Prior knowledge:
CATH architecture of the largest domain: 3-Layer(aba) Sandwich
Structural class: alpha/beta
Helix content: 25-40%
Strand content: 15-25%
Number of helices: 11
Amino acid sequence: MKYDFDDLASRKNSSSYKWDYKEKALPMWVADMDFKSPDFIYESLKERLDIRAYGYTFVDEEFYSSITKWWLNRHQVSFKRDWMIYSSGIVAAISSMVRSLTKEGDNVLVISPVYNIFFNSILNNKRKAVEYQLEYKNNEYHIDFSKLEKTIVDNDIRLLIFCNPQNPTGNIWNKEEIKKIGELAREYNFLVISDEIHCDITDPNYSYTPFISIKENEDISITCISSAKVFNLAGLQASCLVIPNKEIRDKVNRGLNNDEVAEPNFFSIAANIAAFKQGEEYVNQLNEYIYHNKQYLYSFIKDKLPKLKVVEAHSLYLVWVDISFYSQDSVSFTNDLFNKTGLFVSEGNEYHGNGHGFIRINVATSLENIKEGCNRLFDYIQSLK
Length: 385
């Protein structure tokens, strides 16, 4: 079946966090997609809707088996059923795990620039956020492992919240990098929460390395899995945690239940099962479409806005753009861009690291919108001259 990604869902006046803004706004910011859900997800939800009673539900075993089969087929990683725990969402799960796996005052490491909610999950729970900033050179990011190790040693790190692939930079960490982080965790006795929510969104012919795929990492890691990004199901709130170590798993499980974030949504389980059982070809075509959208944006900036620099990456539908030639204040830049053109992108400052000189652009929309967004960005940059 050929999926039509130019045929967008109409999301205005639907209480959409992304789209309910002024009439001429073009939102290319928050990380969800504008594409219509495929029929197999729609039909699974309609089937539940037609029951006309929406009471308490439980997590069907097919939820877990659909995930294990997906990961085996797509990522060549095998999970045991008893490693897997349901949670209502990755953000809620991370906050709960920060509480259950560390103590107040403990140091929790993040590698930035990174998803800003990681910091909230640490600070709101009275832990200390320790930040290792990725090295940035020639429009690329990399880890200096000697500096990372020094940060770990100097701060007695108890937990690392790791983003794999990295949001917002799009970095796909290679096997050696994943292996080295695991070695540091074992040597210095800290755990790794690996948020892999974006893992299925990669350029054609590219794949990523799951943290748990390194055998030695199993005992010190929690892998966070969700359909939210690749199937655009964030509003239904369901995720799965994979924890091979029983002692860690028991602590996490108690925490999730104490925090009341282990109860399933009546609709989400059915949608997730349908997605992971039937979504292979959909995701392949989705990744092709997103890849071409990114290529259009890359080329436009290179040809017409050469003072902007794109971090060209092979994952995510989010593009990280260096605006530092024009501004070192991404907050003012994005506000001014929105007020003058209606183009709404994410300001990089919230992701910490060197994000003050960056914006993040969401390309999970129609090519028509990508072209319009590029033109608005061009008009704004011209106005700065």
